[in-house]
Amino acid sequence: MKTHKTLLVAQASVLAVTMALTAAPVAFAADSEIEELVVTARKREETLIDVPFAISAQGEKTIRNRGITNIEDLSRTVASFSVQNLGPGQSQIAIRGISAGQIVRDQPGVKEQVGVYLDESVISMSLFTPDLDLFDLNRVEVLRGPQGTLFGSGSLSGTVRYITNAPKIGVYEGTVEATLNKVQGGDVGGDLKGAINVPIGEQAALRITAFATQFPGFIDAVQPDGSVKNDVNDGTRRGFRAALTFKPSDALTITPRLQYQKIAVDGFNRVDIFNILGNQFTTTRPRVQLGGTKQYTQLKEKFEDEFLLADLNLQYDVGDLRFTSVSTFTDREVLVLRDATALTGSITGGSIGLAPAVYTINAPLADTTDAKSYTQEIRLASNSEGPLQWVIGGFYSRIDRDYAQDLTVAGFSAATGIQTQGRVAPTDHLYFSLVPYKQTQYAIFGEATYSFTDRLAVTAGLRYADYKESRTLTFDGIFADTTIAVPGKTKADNVAPRVIVAFDATDDITLNAQVSKGFRLGGINDPLNRPLCTPGDLATFSALSTPGFKNETVWNYEAGVKAKLGGKGSLTVAGFYADVSNLQATIDAGSCSSRIIANVPSAKSTGFDAEFAYRISDNFDVAATASYNDAKLTSSVRNAAGAPIQGLRDGNRLPTVPKFQTSFSVGYERELNDSMDVFSNLTWQYVGKRFTQISDQENDPATASLFRNVGATTAAQLSFPLSLPSYDIVNFRVGVRGDGWEAAAFINNVGDERAKLAIDRERGLRARYGFLTNPPRTYGATVRKSF
User: Fold this and answer.
1) Neighbour tally for 160: CB within 10 Å
2) Which residues of 363-397 are buried (b: 16+ CB within 10 A; e: fewer)?
3) How far is it, in rounded angstroms, from Cα 90 to Cα 302?
4) Could you write out the DSSP letters of every residue in 291-307?
5) Which of 756, 745, 592 is nearest to 182 (CA)?
6) d(Cα 57, Cα 26) in Å, to the nearest integer?
7) Which of these, 336, 341, 358, lies nearest to 128 by C-alpha position?
8) Which residues contact 263 (CB under 8 A, 6 or more apart)?
9) What is the pLDDT of residues 110-138, one digit of tens each?
10) pLDDT tens for residues 63-92?
11) In the prediction, which pLDDT does 301 show?
12) d(Cα 387, Cα 90) in Å, to the nearest integer?
């Protein structure tokens, strides 16, 4: 099986490189001609093939046919688009290989590198970008390369846009969809979704979408007494979206909208290989053999994410001008509750040497985020067919984000006699923090395209943004730096220009080239956990963590070609070079059990991405993806002795993203009779080797010295692989459809691939080592009815 899989990957890789193919940008019509998607990547409507830079868009039917249910599935079929799964609702997005390392829940000051939008409303929030349901979406757009001119900070390397189906005036329609699925070796799940569009008189319409999903669990948790809790990572997602379009005149359109969803998951998709409290080397505790789909826990873990968005879109046409106003309010509440008993035990038992009765006390670690934001964008744009198309606008945002972390070890003081009550931390709260953030942003932007001839057009744009961020740090507990109420401030401004030249070589072939800049705001590092630091680590990482980290910027240079293939398909190819300054690298602060952001002076990413889709016949269509990213550091960060710190060495790869990624899809559709068609789709996705952190490639596999006084462990040290091997996923879907209905059966992850999506570790591998993984082979069926 492994040999066959390797051969398959090699053959497909050669095919992808030689043909330079990638994701399908079009939807096929029944007469074997193509129906081009209309996108709004430049704040105006235009066909996908006419956008003069690299963009992928997948429409609702394509997403459904391929069984794509979340952004991680989507990423495997889009060139140069990577999503690192860090647990439910905690995915980290990267485009074109530009990534600074795994962001985790206790780094609330880190900003995103890819902007994410729901229609016109920004919803990005670093690690916690909402995991949106894809039902009743018109399309998903992925804009590759910096989009700072029109979309601002956070669109450093690209932008992702979820475009919903808008209310339709004068139309009554609806859809109901139900799915049932079963994970091999795991639980049963499914979902029920519905959408309805109701006209209200002749000037308004209401569209309501509702969804309820049961996520099947597939991870089993071994308990201290040797018992096993099955399928602990199950959960639910429920929510709705309601939008009202009111058009009192041909010139004015008003659309208020409300979106709400709540995700509640009872565990994490983590496989443990080693846990200090449960392993095969202990002599005084029950021995446990981990791996497979097992983890070791002492208490129930949890993830909850409640997301509310309210926005108002107003559009008014005056002659050849169009005025647009977008007002958005979002409210997020996120809870990440982890079993930190292994981490705490490695300190209380391993470092301090306390008794087993102490270091095995349950230690839940709760990370909570409460974020409220308000954004306002206004813009004025041309609304005519002349040679000059332009848009100018202004943007304002305010974000209030309260982050807190609480490690509770109930009974610790009574068992040890150690005083744990601090100035703000209650008794037995060994680590306690409150970190409120306030961030404001003002920006003005503009972009214009002028067509000098029918074949030559030049686009130029500029954005100026001014940012301010402030926070007050409150840390307490015996594991923390107990300095209280430490204020911190940072501010910055930045300019993001863009110039694009597009030339129609023929009626079907367009050449384009551009220079653009992207940026993301810097910030302030949290204080180190000084009581845990060795003197050497304290000196090294104190110098890096203060006063903060600078803005990260990218200059992007690219050239590409887009071609229409005889009305039956399209091909796009783009090559790029991205020059990164002040890369905000995430690193572990050694013995301090802290994470900080360190600026690496320079890095780069060079490569290509391409797109291909073609209707072979009335029955068959094919699509493929390929991207190559050579992303690496071009400078080093060194300590006082001249040695690179935490892998920040010139030449090391940027983490979380593969060098090579590809996919291939073949669709089949045939008429069975006058009222019924049969269809099928086979999609193969390949993701290359990656690393979770930059430092992981320095010593791979890594050797960790164990705390032998915890569980009387017989092994003095263990070796752990840190590279994330390549993997491939095959999904198959087959069904029948008729007039307004559809029924399909599917198998996802046909080969039952156990992919390593990210390394999960505690205390530098000494407390726990494992990885996050994908669901095993999943069987299911879907029925859908439209009216």
Assistant:
1) 25
2) bbbebbbbbebebebebbbbeeeeeebbbebebeb
3) 13
4) BTTEEE-SS--EEEEEE
5) 745
6) 8
7) 336
8) 88, 89, 131, 235, 236, 237, 303, 304, 305, 306
9) 888 999 999 999 998 877 778 888 999 99
10) 988 888 888 888 888 999 998 877 767 778
11) 96
12) 44
Looking at the predicted structure, is the pLDDT value of residue 219 above 60?
yes
Report residue 292: phi and psi, to 5°.
65, -115
pTM: 0.91
Return d(Cα 670, Cα 668) in angstroms, integer.
7
761, amino acid identity: R
Q: Of 210, 213, 206, 303, nearest to 259 (Cα)?
A: 210
CA distances from 107 to 89, 131, 341, 364, 588 (A): 16, 19, 21, 18, 12
In one-letter notation, the amino acid at residue 157 is S
Give the model's pLDDT for residue 483: 61
pLDDT at 13 over 50: no
Lowest mean pLDDT among 37-46, 303-312, 501-510, 545-554: 545-554
Name the token pair of 784.
């859908």
Token pair for 596:
């900080």
CA 505 to each of CA 53, 249, 318, 608: distance values in angstroms, whole numbers, following the listed order: 16, 41, 35, 21
Tokens 């006390």 map to which residue?
361
Kindly indicate the confidence band of residue 144, based on its pLDDT and cuts at 50, 70 and 90. Answer: very high
Per-residue pLDDT, 105: 67
